[in-house]
Amino acid sequence: MKYFAHSQREFVYKYVVMRSDVDQFQHMSFANYLRLMFLATDALILGVHEYGLLMNNSRLITSKSNMQFKSQTVFGDNILIKVNSSNLQKDHFSLLFTYIIEESGTLVALGKQSLYFASLNTRTPIPTPSEITPLLESISVNERNLLYRY
């Protein structure tokens, strides 16, 4: 029963759509959703106590990223970006992003990033740092048990 919604944990990043985010049609432009994906990832990783030391020794690399757009947002919308981890392996993992308009609960977009940590000099994959593992485990889900396909 571990895959029921009440037992899932996620990291939530909140963003308010600004006038600088919208295009000529008054909708948030698609590139901004990708930018929000990276901002939410940064906010998640910044929560690690040893962040400075961690980033002095390694870099977080995005090996793959994709998005599915479901509906538009406009100036003033409060967007919740719910972040979960999946596919936790020794040297790589995925982050799943669910974009929702806070007031209405409307699904805006789904996103997925495949990530790994790399050594500073060679950019070759290294094991996921032990400081990050508990954070990823606390928001981990099994993609096969989710309603949406990322």
Query: How is the main sheet built?
Result: 6 strands, antiparallel
Overall shape: it is globular
Whole-number mean pLDDT: 87
| Ends apart, CA distance between termini | 22 Å
Q: Name the CATH architecture.
A: Roll
**Succession of helices and strands:** EHHEEEEEH
Helicity range of the residues? 10-25%
Number of domains: 1
CA gyration radius, whole angstroms: 16 Å
Could you name the CATH homologous superfamily?
Answer: Hotdog Thioesterase
Discrete helix count = 3
CATH topology: Thiol Ester Dehydrase, Chain A
Number of strands: 6
The assigned structural class equals alpha+beta
Please write the CATH class name.
Alpha Beta
- Taking pLDDT < 50 over at least 5 consecutive residues as the criterion, the unreliable ranges are none
Q: Which percent range describes the beta-strand content?
A: 25-35%
Describe this structure in words.
This protein is α+β, with helices and mostly antiparallel strands and 150 residues long. The chain has one domain: Hotdog Thioesterase (Thiol Ester Dehydrase, Chain A). The chain has 3 helices and 6 strands; from the N terminus they run E-H-H-E-E-E-E-E-H. Strands 1, 2, 3, 4, 5 and 6 form a 6-stranded antiparallel β-sheet that branches. The protein is globular and about 45 Å long. The two termini are 22 Å apart.
Layout of helices and strands, plus pairs?
Blueprint: E1 11-16, H1 30-46, H2 51-57, E2 58-69, E3 78-86, E4 93-101, E5 107-119, E6 125-126, H3 133-138
Antiparallel strand pairs: 1-3, 2-5, 3-4, 4-5, 5-6
Q: How would you briefly describe this protein structure?
A:
With 150 residues, the chain is of the alpha+beta class. The chain has helices at residues 30-46, 51-57, 133-138; strands at 11-16, 58-69, 78-86, 93-101, 107-119, 125-126. Strands 1, 2, 3, 4, 5 and 6 form a 6-stranded antiparallel β-sheet that branches.
